[in-house]
Structure formats: C-alpha cells, structure tokens
Amino acid sequence: MKGKKKTTPNLVIFMDLVAEGDEVLLYLNDRKSWILKVERGKKFHTHKGIINIEDLIGKPYGSEVLTSLGVALKILPADYLDHLEKIARKTQIIYPKDMAYIALIANVRSGSRVVECGTGSGALTSYLANMVRPNGKVYTYEVREDFQVNAKKNLESLGLEKFVEFKLKDITKGIDETDVDAVILDMATPWLVVEEARKALRVGGRLVSFSPTINQVEKTVDAMEKAQFINIKAVELIMRGYKVKVNETRPDTIMVGHTGYIVSGRRC
Ligand SMILES: C[S@@+](CC[C@H](N)C(=O)[O-])C[C@H]1O[C@@H](n2cnc3c(N)ncnc32)[C@H](O)[C@@H]1O
Fold this sequence. Notes:
By secondary structure, the chain is of the alpha/beta class. The chain folds into two domains: 4-78, Vcp-like ATPase, Chain A, domain 2, CATH 3.10.330.20; 83-266, Vaccinia Virus protein VP39 (Rossmann fold, 3-Layer(aba) Sandwich), CATH 3.40.50. The chain is 22% helix and 34% strand. Strands 11-10-9-12-13-17-14 form a seven-stranded mixed β-sheet, sandwiched between helices. Helix 4 (145-157) links the parallel strand 10 (137-142) and strand 11. The termini are far apart. Residues 7-12 have low confidence and may be disordered. S-adenosylmethionine binds at residues 91-94, 117-118, 120-124, 141-144, 147, 170-172, 186-188.
C-alpha cells in the first residue's frame, strides 16, 4: 500500500506504508542498522531480538517495530546510501567525498557512456551507474575474476547491474569502446592507460584518475601532457567532521588524514 491518505479535520497527510516486496532499513542507531526485503512467513534475527517480517506490512514508514526483546527499530525505506555502506568489500573502495567529486569533474550525467577501471568492489561503479541511468552505460574493467564476481553481486543488490557492462580484461591491453564521455581510473598504474584513454574518449571527454601516492600522480600527469590533454589538474580533498553540541561544537578528534589524489584532464 503506497501513498495512503490519512485525513484529520484540518490536515491531509500522505503516508507511505510498508508493502510486501519493499526493501526497508531497520534502524537501531547510527552504528547499527539492517536492510531487509519484506516477505511473508519469515523471521529476521538480530542481537536485539527477532521480528516477524510480515508484521512490517502496513506500518507507516518512520514508525517503529518492536523486536521479541522489546527493542524499538525505526522503519525507513532503504536507499542507495544505505546499500553503499553495506556492500561487500574485497578491495579498498573510493570514499564518498572522492566519489562525488570524481563524478562531477568527469561530467558524468544521465545518458553518459563511461569507461572505468578497476571495478574492485564496485563501489564507484555503483555510483556511476546510478548517475548514467536510464540510458547511459558504465563499462568497467577488472583483471581479478573473484573481485568481478563480488562487484556484480553488489551491483545486483542495488538493482543497478543493467547499467553496467563488466569486462574481465587488463585495461592496459586496450579499451574496446570508442567515443566515450569519460574514462575514470582507480588502479595502481593509471599512466599506462592514458594513451588508451585518449583513443577511447570523444573530443572534449574527461579523464579522471584517483591515486593514493604522489609518484603515481607525477607519472599520470606526465603521460597526460605527452598525450596532449588540456585542463590538467591534481587535487586532494580533505574532509573534517564536527561534533556538534550547543556551546561545545568542535572538530572530531580523529579524522581520515588521506585517501588519495585526483588527477583530471580533457581530451583535445
Ligand atoms: C582500489 S581497487 C578499485 C576499487 C573501486 N574503485 C571501488 O570503489 O570499489 C583497484 C582495482 O583495480 C584492478 N586493476 C589494477 N590494474 C588493472 C588493470 N591493468 N586492468 C584491470 N583492472 C586492474 C585491481 O584488480 C583492483 O580490483
């Protein structure tokens, strides 16, 4: 049941109710939550007790369900970020702060055709797939079959696999696609792909590469200059969180000091 109307004398509220087949987030606190599919006749076990999944059907989103131990869990619709936090990691994945900036400066949008390497755990692939849909495509290259299998599962759990073509191939041996809008690299030797990227990109298309070390940045920029890319830039994004409390607000004591550098340029 979706968008059911609840009326009071002065107010009309449209409430979304949990329906069979929905994917819901059961929220305990900021550190612990679960995603589950709403099905009849099944139980869901947590360390805070058990719930009968079908008891969720018909409850308004935003309300709570009690476990067998009397613990209240809030019910929310599971969204892309909920899934991203829970994907199975077999590799280091791109941090959200870098992911969003990479997609922006690669000019990825609905309908884009994007080449990506390596697939890794598919975290960046999923973000790109979410942006290019419904008519675009992400062509993602990976050399390790076990990583590719895991990434496919992750994309399937997000319902985004149809916007991705998974390629089991060493990208330094060549990019099969031509006239693509962007090439995005998160791999150990991006400088070995720059010439291939130039051939694959349409004129005006963007190359963006993420690397944890500065020697990778130097080699990549050097290769991009030789391949006559323009607007070549290298940046590092540093994000600092805050502990917010009235009259006591201050930066978090511990922060992620470094993730990687982002090199970008445009094919001329
Ligand atoms: C750091 S991981 C990528 C993580 C990914 N961006 C994510 O967010 O989940 C780097 C991946 O690049 C792959 N890789 C490295 N060199 C490659 C190459 N020449 N061709 C294809 N894949 C490569 C590795 O096997 C590894 O899975």
